[in-house]
Design brief:
It comes from Tribonema minus. This is PROP1-like PPR domain-containing protein. This protein has a domain of 81 residues. It is 66% helix and 2% strand. Strand 1 and strand 2 form a beta hairpin. The N and C termini lie far apart (57 Å). It has 419 residues and is mainly alpha-helical. It contains 22 helices and 2 strands. Strands 1-2 form a two-stranded antiparallel sheet. Helix 9 packs antiparallel against helix 10. The longest helix is centred in the last third of the chain and has 17 residues.
Length: 419
């Protein structure tokens, strides 16, 4: 029996192994622990782990390690992990670093940062250390969800990230560059340049010299606020202190300047990129194209697409849709909806299948200018290619970013069409 179970476990057939175990009439504590609990713990079989714990308690043989394994089994269920951590306490067992760490990780993965902070407080009261890696996981989770906030978190992500950095210091765990970088990324995600700058200074105060990666995150955070002038000034200060920009730096600056349609700024950045002897990639071309698209300068967007092909950067289907999306937007913003529809034909001629966002954009643009016949024809084409579902006709999204003289409206990339 035991040999068969081990064989099934080795083959990854966990549920069959557990089912075989259940045929044992009177398993010993050693069998429960070795054949059931360990398999359940490391393969996320919640119910089997709980069953094993109950059997061990009935046998009077439960240990701290058994509780640890049950909590590990719940590493993707914060509620279950915290429940058994509390049960461990009620059973008279002292919390262990492994049990607390597993519960804390479950809270982080679930985004239940309020619970995570409460648990950290209880761990401090019991003098249980928190691993630096767990703090890093929690800080990264602060950036998940809209505005850096998730269910189970009553505070904004930036505030929570800074609280975690402070908690690290209070518990004697020195944050390194990874923790500061993760916290800055949370700031960049919500356009909080003030806190991003503060965290960068905190790094310096701790004797950690920010690298180009951290500088790029700061530029992105400033650019997210729409303050292109300050972003460029920060970039100038960065280069003056000896930091060498990389292509990601240029991509970030182009994307943020492009979002505001400041073509002259984007053109200067393009020249700077060549001065730095950096070779543009597809992302770089797309960011530059999007700037011209936002300004409705389709002739320049077309020229960039040709330049990209000439530079031996012929994109694949995914990146081609990405670039063509920007080109199509340029035509729509300029009121050239008919010309924009021809891009679909160009894609098909190149054996590139337009993706859903590309179809969404042109269909909604045609609908917005009142050309229902064109919208219907485009929708039917998309349906025939299997890109759009039959039962899901389009409508204008609430998330419309641009209005153009012709009345056409452009959707952001990734917006779904729905009834």
């Amino acid at each position: 029996m035991a040999q068969d179970m081990r064989k099934l476990s080795k083959e990854g057939r966990w549920r069959e192994a557990c089912a075989l175990f259940n045929t044992i009439k009177e398993p010993t504590a050693a069998q429960v622990r070795a054949l059931l609990l360990k398999n359940a713990a490391f393969n996320q079989l919640f119910s089997q782990a709980v069953l094993a714990l109950r059997q061990l308690r009935a046998l009077g043989a439960v240990t701290v390690r058994d509780f640890e394994l049950v909590i590990i089994a719940h590493r993707y269920s914060a509620r279950g992990a915290l429940q058994f951590l509390a049960e461990m306490d009620r059973a008279g067992f002292s919390w262990s670093p492994i049990a607390c760490g597993a519960a804390l990780q479950a809270c982080g993965v679930a985004g239940q940062l309020d619970d995570a902070m409460q648990l950290i407080g209880k761990m401090r009261e019991r003098s249980i250390a928190v691993d630096a890696a767990l703090f890093l996981t929690l800080i990264k989770e602060c950036g998940r969800g809209k505005d850096g906030r998730r269910a189970g978190d009553s505070r904004g992500g930036v505030v929570r990230a800074r609280e975690l950095l402070r908690a690290m210091e209070e518990m004697g765990v020195a944050p390194d560059i990874r923790h500061f970088n993760a916290a800055m990324l949370v700031c960049a995600a919500v356009g909080d340049a003030v806190n991003a700058t503060g965290i960068l200074q905190q790094m310096r105060d701790k004797g950690i010299q920010p690298g180009i990666r951290e500088q790029n995150v700061l530029l992105d955070a400033i650019g997210a606020t729409g303050d292109v002038e300050r972003m460029l000034a920060t970039f100038k200060d960065m280069t003056a202190t000896g930091q060498h920009p990389n292509l990601y730096t240029i991509n970030t600056l182009l994307a943020r300047a492009g979002a505001t349609g400041q073509c002259s700024v984007a053109e200067d950045l393009w020249k700077e990129m060549h001065r730095l002897k950096l070779e543009p990639g597809v992302v770089t071309f797309n960011a530059f194209m999007d700037c011209y698209a936002t300004a409705g300068r389709y002739e320049r967007a077309e020229a960039l697409l040709q330049e990209m092909s000439a530079a031996a950067l012929a994109p694949d289907a995914v990146t081609y849709n990405w670039c063509v999306y920007a080109l199509m937007k340029a035509y729509i913003v300029a009121g050239q909806v008919n010309a924009a529809t021809l891009i679909i034909n160009r894609m098909c001629a190149a054996n590139i299948r337009p993706d859903r966002p590309t179809w969404n954009q042109i269909i909604n643009a045609a609908d917005a200018v009142g050309d229902e016949q064109m919208a219907d024809a485009l929708y039917n084409d998309a349906r025939m290619l299997g890109t759009l579902e039959v039962e899901q006709p389009w409508q204008l999204s609430d998330d419309i970013k641009l209005e153009v003289a012709s009345g056409a409206k452009v959707l952001t990339r990734g917006t779904k069409v729905s009834e």
